[in-house]
Amino acid sequence: MTKRTSAKYKIDRRMGENIWGRPKSPVNRRDYGPGQHGQRRKGKLSDFGIQLRAKQKLKGYYGDLTEKQFRRIYGEAERVKGDTGENLIGLLERRLDAVVYRAKFVPTVFAARQFVNHGHVLVNGKRVNIPSYRVKEGDVIEVRDKSKQMVAVLEAVQLAERDVPDYIEADHSKMTATFVRTPSLGDVPYPVVMEPNLVVEFYAKN
């Protein structure tokens, strides 16, 4: 399991953006960075700084993945035919924890990782407890019977702050979701602008 090295709201503060679109994000109240020097006027970022920030934002969005994990996914995206940035988004969205989050079985992507880790999720009828498990088109993801009445699950389904995207078909009465297709960048409902092209530029130069 990837160690959660920083609280999700700290990531928001560091980026100066509400990257998950949550109503409780501190960025909604103060848009400066954390710490005693957070209110100092921000200097203009270099090209490297802009690219690094785009990488950190995308990496943070998916549960603050480790650099090793993220770099490995990027390497796969680079090897596959097509646009590397689009491939990267597609691979990230095919992670089991991302699909569980998108299907609104849990309130946050951090909760999704824990939910999968604790064995609450079935893929095509078989229990899978690896958050990075890669879902294929047509796979059916289901909340285990014993877990369907968990308070966190029932509350997540009612969340009005986000909708299930059209590349996932979710049936909340049965707590099942089908991964219909791999999305492109324009299909993914990010609350903020993600720039995988800058991530590609970052890794190309570093």
TrEMBL record:
Superkingdom of source: Bacteria
CDD domains found in the cross-reference section: S4
Pfam families registered for this protein in UniProt: Ribosomal_S4, S4
Domain Small ribosomal subunit protein uS4 N-terminal: 3-93
RNA-binding S4 domain mapped to chain residues: 94-158
InterPro entries listed in its UniProt record: Ribosomal_uS4, Ribosomal_uS4_bac-type, Ribosomal_uS4_CS, Ribosomal_uS4_N, S4_RNA-bd, S4_RNA-bd_sf
SUPFAM superfamilies: Alpha-L RNA-binding motif
Disordered: annotated span: 18-46
Record's keyword terms, sorted: Ribonucleoprotein, Ribosomal protein, RNA-binding, rRNA-binding
Recorded GO CC terms: ribosome
Similarity-based family: Belongs to the universal ribosomal protein uS4 family.
Primary role: One of the primary rRNA binding proteins, it binds directly to 16S rRNA where it nucleates assembly of the body of the 30S subunit.
NCBIfam families xrefs: PRK05327.1, rpsD_bact
Complex and partners: Part of the 30S ribosomal subunit. Contacts protein S5. The interaction surface between S4 and S5 is involved in control of translational fidelity.
Protein name in the entry: Small ribosomal subunit protein uS4
Annotated source species: Leisingera daeponensis
Native organism taxonomy: Bacteria, Pseudomonadati, Pseudomonadota, Alphaproteobacteria, Rhodobacterales
